[in-house]
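Lab notes, practical 5.
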Amino acid sequence: MTICVIDGQGGKIGSTIITKLKERLRESVEIIALGTNSSATENMMKARANRGASGENAIVVTVRKAGIVIGTMNILIANSMLGELTPRMAQAIAESAAVKIVLPVTQENVLVIGKTDLSIPQMVSSLVEEVEKEINRCAR
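Output from the prediction step:
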């Protein structure tokens, strides 16, 4: 299964997610780091993603082939991440047949009702558990 982790503005959350996925899932999946910019991709590659690419076209093309797409809520919001997440990227991600697993973190003026106040590490742990469940569900 191919998992795409999308991040921008430095790739810190994406790097944390990739590190935890690699620890938990070992080599059973391919993780592709997709950065809205090369700095984010580079940092996610340091977390041992299998492959990586940067920019709008890379994200638009790659999410079509993914089984799971992971990121913050910003990946579904056009012009988020200070404009780094383009409308074309947001549309491609939303229209991808992949399961989208997102952290309720946003820099935009979006409030998520019902979300609990967890730290980023706690949210990433929950995210990894959900990814594992999805992989097991698909394996049946």
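Observations recorded by the TA: The mean pLDDT is 93. The chain has one domain: 2-139.
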